[in-house]
């Protein structure tokens, strides 16, 4: 708004070749790569997939075009980039027109760019007090996740898993350290990175403090916990997702209750001020008993922490974050119906009753309204453009958008197996047939093995 740049790319294209021409607006990131359609009318270019293999050749191509290139010049120069989505050149295609089987005029799919191991690790190069985690120097240890949790976008869209080399990570740390004394180690599951043990010993020798993103309970070792405590970490974060064995199988998430208790006793002995636990509600077939199992799981973890601390009650806070399950494009659950607001609110209320502050819990929940809006954006199409534009200019609020129920019935409904989806013009590597097979296994309560590079099952390798 303050830049005076028109929001829609069609308005900006009218000035191409003139002195008053506007800059090209480029989008990217994992959410946009899964389904760019809701924002497609606002951007000139959208990078699908990882940035590393795309940005240098894209930058060079744009420089060769010179100032104020017209849309046809851009199109001609970039049509050889299979990872670049030019929304204005594929109008109507993602709404199902020209996407049916046997259409000879169908355009090639946009292929997800895939960074190689040599491109990693990604690490922070801009340092500002205005950033999130402004006290940390961030470094990404691995891309993707091998665990195969069926709700997880990272676990399917970023296949196969790629790990940064140990030496490359050390070189990145050396670049970061002059700007930030404390490191933030990032990965879907930091403990899965194969160089972690060696890195922990290095950080200990060099007395480099660090913190980590979410930890996997069953893979957590005492050495990491010890060094996190010595680094001054105040919070450890875990994501059990559910306490129900039935829902675990549906999600393809494994848990050993005895091992969880042992790990929590060990964690409790260090008495971290805050332990964060993340759960989800709103899965199909979820009963009131399944929801109660979340409270049981949180209490069991709290009891293990207390035993480890040698106290009747754990001296720190157990923060329980409960989010609504949002089906996402390019996961096995992209066909699922999302739970409605009444269902989500009833289950949230039940958990508020079960996990009270006076018992040492701090319950944090999303509003069902915001969750529904996330679900709409996750599986939306270009029809959302006008709504997003009004929201950008504060002309309409989320509550008003959802009031009629039309968007909910349009975008949050269940999808058919052969239904054309707004994001079907993308090729992320993992095949649609594999995702459908995983969806059927979930409905049958069957689990699947972890992602194994080279197995050829899902199509990503």
State the gist of this model.
With 461 residues, the protein is α/β, with parallel strands linked by helices. The protein has helices spanning 9-13, 30-34, 52-65, 71-78, 153-157, 166-176, 196-205, 222-230, 245-251, 257-268, 288-309, 341-354, 368-378, 385-392, 398-403, 406-411, 432-443; strands at residues 26-27, 45-47, 84-85, 110-111, 136-140, 142-143, 162-163, 182-186, 210-212, 235-241, 274-281, 317-324, 361-365, 426-427.
Structural classification: alpha/beta
Helicity range = 25-40%
Rough outline? globular
Radius of gyration: 24 Å
For the largest beta-sheet, the strand count, sense and barrel status come to: 4 strands, parallel
Describe the model:
- Helix content is 36%, strand content 12%.
- With 461 residues, it is an alpha/beta fold.
- The strands form 5 sheets. Strands 10-11-12-13 form a 4-stranded parallel beta sheet, covered by helices on one side. It has a 3-stranded mixed beta sheet with strand order 1-2-3, with no helix packed on it. The protein has a 3-stranded parallel beta sheet with strand order 5-8-9, with helices on one face.
- Helix 7 links the parallel strand 8 and strand 9.
- Helix 10 crosses helix 11 (288-309).
- The longest helix has 22 residues, at 288-309.
- The chain is globular and about 70 Å long.
- Residues 96-105 have low confidence and may be disordered.
């Amino acid at each position: 708004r303050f830049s005076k740049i028109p929001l829609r790319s069609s308005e900006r294209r009218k000035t191409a070749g003139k002195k008053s021409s506007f800059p090209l607006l480029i989008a990217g990131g994992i959410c946009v790569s899964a389904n760019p359609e809701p924002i497609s009318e606002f951007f000139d270019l959208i990078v699908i997939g990882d940035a590393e293999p795309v940005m240098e050749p894209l930058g060079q191509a744009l420089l060769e075009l010179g100032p104020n290139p017209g849309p046809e010049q851009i199109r001609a120069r970039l049509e050889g980039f299979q990872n670049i989505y030019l929304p204005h050149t594929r109008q109507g295609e993602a709404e199902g027109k020209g996407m049916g089987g046997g259409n000879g005029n169908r355009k090639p799919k946009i292929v997800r760019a895939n960074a190689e191991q040599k491109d990693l690790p990604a690490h922070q190069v801009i340092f500002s007090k205005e950033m999130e985690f402004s006290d940390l120097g961030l470094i990404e240890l691995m891309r993707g996740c091998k665990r195969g949790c069926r709700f997880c976008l990272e676990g399917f869209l970023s296949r196969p898993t790629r790990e940064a080399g140990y030496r490359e990570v050390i070189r990145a740390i050396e670049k970061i350290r002059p700007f930030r004394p404390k490191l933030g180690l990032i990965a879907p599951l930091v403990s899965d990175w194969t160089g972690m043990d060696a890195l922990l010993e290095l950080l200990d020798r060099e007395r480099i403090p660090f913190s980590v993103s979410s930890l996997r309970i069953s893979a957590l070792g005492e050495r990491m916990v010890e060094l996190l405590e010595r680094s001054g970490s105040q919070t450890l974060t875990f994501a059990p997702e559910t306490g129900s064995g039935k829902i675990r199988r549906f999600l393809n998430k494994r848990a050993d209750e005895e091992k969880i208790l042992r790990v929590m006793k060990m964690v409790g002995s260090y008495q971290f001020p805050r332990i964060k636990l993340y759960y989800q509600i709103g899965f199909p077939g979820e009963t009131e008993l399944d929801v109660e199992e979340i409270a049981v799981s949180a209490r069991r973890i709290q009891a293990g922490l207390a035993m480890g601390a040698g106290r009747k009650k754990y001296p720190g806070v157990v923060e329980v974050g409960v989010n609504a399950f949002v089906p996402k494009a390019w996961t096995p659950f992209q066909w699922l119906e999302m739970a409605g607001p009444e269902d989500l609110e009833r289950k949230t209320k039940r958990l508020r009753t079960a996990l009270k502050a006076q018992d040492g819990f701090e319950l944090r929940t999303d509003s069902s309204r915001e969750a529904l809006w996330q679900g709409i954006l996750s599986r939306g199409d270009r029809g959302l453009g006008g709504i997003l534009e009004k929201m950008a200019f504060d002309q309409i609020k989320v509550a008003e958008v959802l009031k009629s129920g039309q968007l909910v019935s349009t975008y949050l409904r269940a999808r058919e197996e052969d239904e054309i989806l707004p994001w079907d013009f993308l090729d992320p590597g993992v095949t649609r047939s594999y995702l459908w097979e995983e969806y059927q296994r979930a409905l049958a309560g069957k689990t699947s093995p972890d992602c194994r590079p080279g197995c050829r099952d899902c199509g990503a390798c």
